[in-house]
Amino acid sequence: MHAGKISREHGSLMGKMKEVRAFERELLEHIDMFKLAREEDDAEMESESLKALLRMRRNSKEKELQALLSGELDSCSCYIEVQAGAGGTESMDWAAMVMQMYKLWAQRNGYKVTVVDEMPGEIAGIKRATIKVDGEYTFGYAKAEVGVHRLVRISPFDSNKRRHTSFAAVAVIPILGDESSHVQINETDLRIERFRAGGAGGQHVNTTESAIRIVHIPTGVSATCQNERSQHQNKASAMAVLQSRLDQLEMARQAQMNAQHTQSLTDITWGSQIRSYVLHPYRMVKDLRTNYEVSDPDSVLGGDLDGFILSYLSAFLDKDEGDR
Amino acid sequence: MKLSFTRSCCPFNFSTSFKRSLCANLHWPVFSSLVSSRPTSLKPQTPLFLRPAMHSAPVSDLRKWRDWAKNLASSVGTTFLDLDNGPDSSLLCRELKWLMEDAIEDHSLFFQMGIEHDHTNVRLRAGIEELYNMWKQRIEERRPFQYIVGCEHWRDLVLSVQEGVLIPRPETELIVDLVADVVSENEGLKEGLWADLGTGSGALAIGIGRILGSHGAVIATDLSPISLSVAAFNLQRYGLQDTVELRQGSWFKPLKDVEGKLAGIVSNPPYIPMENISGLQAEVGRHEPRLALDGGPSGMDDLFHLCNGAASMLKPSGFFIFEVWIL
Q1: Scanning A324, B104, B208, B270, which has its CA 20 to 30 A from the CA of A120?
Q2: Contact indicator for B297, B143 with CB cutoff of 8 Å
Q3: A203-240 exposure pattern, b = at least 16 Cβ within 10 A, e = fewer
Q4: In chain B, which residues have their Cβ closer than 8 Å to the Cβ of A199?
Q5: Between B128-140 and B59-76, two packed helices, what is the crossing angle to 10 degrees?
Q6: Is residue A140 domain-shared with residue A246, that is, in the same domain?
Q7: Would you state the pLDDT for residue A270?
Q8: A144 is in which domain, residue-wise?
């Protein structure tokens, strides 16, 4: 049995190596062709080999992505949650900026974004928010963002124009596509809370507020939704978030999968800083895990995250391989 | 008291408490299409989100309107909340977002547009001046948001509402859940005839009609002609004209022919004591129909009437579910 498995794996790896070697050979051939075409001033041949090279580049990008996003859950859609760190309005504003960054990132990539839950700060920003990002491989990419994001800037909320450091924590939860893998939720284990201001309700009050909070009593895990326009739909959205949270919890318990995949917001220690965004005195965004850096924070905050994500994924991949 | 839910919603089982003659065989007329009592003169208003996008405005103008509206909403702070439990600015800002969703044909695109799109025209379901008016009415007159956009999202439905028709409340959604529960345990109730008394926008009748499916039937009554025309519009939108029949009249009056034949009765009758009407939240007291709110001196007038009448209207083991909120 075991020998058979090993032998199959061996075969598959040999196949892959063969593919890589063939790819390499093809690449060299095309380069030689291109050089030759240049020397002989053959425009037609030059453009043909250039085309072939471009095709190979596309091909290799695809292959690279396939290798990076081969995790079991990578192809799932996901929730992204951002929570402001300590520090009041300053951090809440930063949390809102981080959330906006992910919304823009998702838009750039053609993913669908839905705000599920948003708790605004008193003066500005958000205390916490959850968005749903629908699209292929959104979890695979977004998981690279899990951790604490740090901002250094001159505070717009400080009349003395002092430099402030703020933190925001990011969690990413996969949405399992396969119904059968969901954790069974017992209706009787749920406490459903409907938010109502004051004691009155029914005909006495007309409000568009129809927030719902669902608590899973055995685990204490909860989910809130207030962005839909009916209570019924808020409940459905909150249930979906709760389901994903419980699924994630269960996965963590059962498989003890990689910590990065399964950490939920509350588990992220404020020490697990992954990226630093400095707007003052110099301008730079630097990933502390990969040392990948960009000197234009505006573009990053505008959603240009792919460089960070890909460099993290490939570093993670290499590390993963090295561990074996 | 913030989170708990204090409405008593009482499923009564009348079969044990009332002596009844043997149940007449189950045959009531087959109800199809709308009945003649539907007033033809009242044409219901079309909700904003269903209007054709005949207007347009440059992105910059729309953004200007939004910023103005946001400022107006922010200036409210907690004034309304402190005054009469009305909306605070964060709730108003959320409503503003929904207003944009209903008014702008391609709203998700608008939310992404940057300064470079300032001169692009956006197609709208209401003119920009009308949008200014709408938001002014919302803030200055406290006109309910649902009347402004002409609809209320209720359960999984989007119901048309307008002045003269009570805006269905989120709590009332639970009555449909209760009906779903009793119906799932009793096939007889599922195939029986139900009545929604004082249907308003038709919310309960539609919610229940969708649960009963093709076997059941619902009669929805209301005294108000405007309500009936709005309910008819909503029924049509959900294709329930053959399941739900509308009848005009007070409580049981239009139901003489089905006495003793009803499997279930649901109602959200007026239950606010008369003397409390003047102190209500402005959105309710100033704009919603008194007919749907005022429950007489005790607040219980209509409820007592319904409880008394329900006994003779229901067949044995029938259900009566109503809403009441005692402060």
Answers
A1: B104
A2: no
A3: bbbbbbbbbbbbbbeeeebbbbbbbbbbbbbbbebbbb
A4: 1, 6, 327
A5: 0
A6: no
A7: 55
A8: 78-179+271-321
Nearest to A209 among B91, B166, B167 (CB): B91
* pLDDT higher at B30 or B148: B148
Tell me the nearest-neighbour CA distance from B144 into chain A, angstroms.
8
- Inter-chain contacts counted by CB atoms under 8 A, chains A and B: 103
Q: Which of A86, A45, A69 is nearest to A174 (CA)?
A: A69
- Taking the Cβ of residue A194 and every Cβ of chain B, the question of whether any pair is shorter than 8 Å is answered with yes
pLDDT in tens, B136-145: 999 999 999 9
- Show the domain range for B136: 48-149
Distance from CA of B49 to the nearest CA of A (A): 14
Q: Are residues A247 and A310 in the same domain?
A: no
Q: Is residue B15 part of a domain?
A: no
Residues B187 and B273 in one domain: yes
Task: Read off the pLDDT of each residue in A36-51 and give the average, rounded to a whole number.
Answer: 89
pTM above 0.80, yes or no: no
Count of domains forming chain A: 3
Q: Name the domain boundary from B126, B149, B172.
A: B149
| ipTM surpassing 0.90 | no
Write out pLDDT tens, residues A265-303: 444 555 588 999 999 889 999 999 999 999 999 999 999
Q: At B221, which CATH number?
A: 3.40.50.150
Residue A26, C-beta contacts closer than 8 angstroms, at least 6 positions apart? A56
Q: Is A204 on the interface with B (CB under 8 A)?
A: yes
Same domain (yes/no): B172, B122: no
The string of pLDDT tens digits covering residues B96-131 is 999 999 999 988 777 777 777 888 899 999 999 999
* B170 domain-assigned: yes
**Mean pLDDT over all residues of chain A?**
85
